[in-house]
Amino acid sequence: MSCPHVAESIADHFDEFLSPATQQKHQQHLADCRECRSEIDALNALPKMLGAWQTQSVPDWDRRAIMRPHAVRKTLPHRHSHWSSVARWVPLAASLVLAIAVVTQTRVEVTDSGWSLSFGGSAQDSGNEQLDSYLAIYAAAQQADTREWVENALRAHGETTADSVYQWMTWMEQQREQDVRRMEAGFQQMLDRDFQTVDTVRQLASYVMYQESP
Amino acid sequence: MDQTDNQLIDATLSGSVSAWETLVRRHETRVYNIGLRLMHNPDDAMDLTQEVFLGVYRNLYRFRGDSQFSTWLFRIVHNKAIDMIRRRQSGPDMETGFDELPEPADSHDGPQEQYLESEFNERIAKFLSRLPPAQRVIVELKVFQSLTFDEIAPLQNIPVNTAKTRFYTALKNLKGMMEVHA
Fold it and tell me: How far is it, in rounded angstroms, from Cα B72 to Cα A86?
């Protein structure tokens, strides 16, 4: 019969910092359990063999380079810049606009004569591809707008260098990546919890239209 | 007399480039070797090393000296390594989960497949690379970093018994691989 404590026995055997009470319990179990003794015999040499790893030296690299981008980044929060505090709210504001557009069933139509904005209207069965297309266009537009906005902001603020623009953009991109990861995690949770909820969200999202005339 | 880590950190925060370089040189070998064992690739190990020290530098002002610098550093190494393994996994073999055993690599690897300086290290890293990442990390923490299971569990955000089971399973997997290649 298989011992249900074999994993614990093996782990305890290789734990050098067991409390005296746990050590005694472990030894007592080993004395009574042939399977655990056998497993320990079989695996005993492994950690020692792995531990014979020969430490390898690090190839030369530019350790000082790390300090350069950080110096710029570190100064940003201490500038008390109006722009930096505003920038933190850009993603939230964009999300809010998108949410309002979903709730009000906003539709944007682009034609040769210009574009038109309408609210409400009947739902169309646009499907996942349309939603994906919309989100991709939205993301690209947001990225371009954000980049242009930050560059203008820094230019107007007058304390910038090309390096600090780059560093700030890197920081912004990291924030955006975090947002995307959070959004993906949220969608995954919804998928796991209730497929119908996702279906409803899809229908809602399909109300937001972005159509380009041929 | 050698400066302590805390003295080097203070000097770094005051802008001393040489203090920072000394601090990095003191700890980079440990980080790099963790990378080699977890990634089985010198380039990835170097990426990990650079990411870790970038993270350290960015957050250095948060280090208050309540714990040893090496402990604080190791937590950053651990988190960055997990992130990097997950990122690497989301590439070609995305279907292999964090807890699953990956497909074994070709056992007839030629000389060009040898990444590491010593043949012994190469073999160990290769065996470790065939473990599921979750088991690989447990082996790293237990065997190479000598942490207790009570320390591993919160670091990995798993129950102690899960950590023990993963360690046992990892040893059994390694044993099986070594028998096949004996």
Answer: 33
Contact A64 B20 (CB under 8 A): yes
Summarised one tens digit per residue, pLDDT across range A26-64 is 999 999 999 999 999 999 999 988 988 999 999 999 888
* Cross-chain residue pair B143–A67, CB shorter than 8 Å: no
Chain B touched by A112 (CB under 8 Å): no
Q: Does A121 touch chain B (CB under 8 A)?
A: no
Query: At A34, which amino acid appears?
Result: R
Of B91, B114, B141, at which residue does a domain stop? B91
Q: Please state the ipTM of this predicted complex.
A: 0.78
> Residue B52: in which H helix or E strand, if any?
helix B42-59
Q: Does A180 touch chain B (CB under 8 A)?
A: no
| The pairing of beta strand A107-111 with beta strand A114-118 | antiparallel
Nearest chain A residue to B61, by CA? A74
**Which helix (H) or strand (E) is A29 found in, with range?**
helix A20-32
- If asked whether residues B1 and B57 sit together in one domain, one would say yes
Q: Is the pTM of this model over 0.90?
A: no
Domain that holds residue B57: 1-91
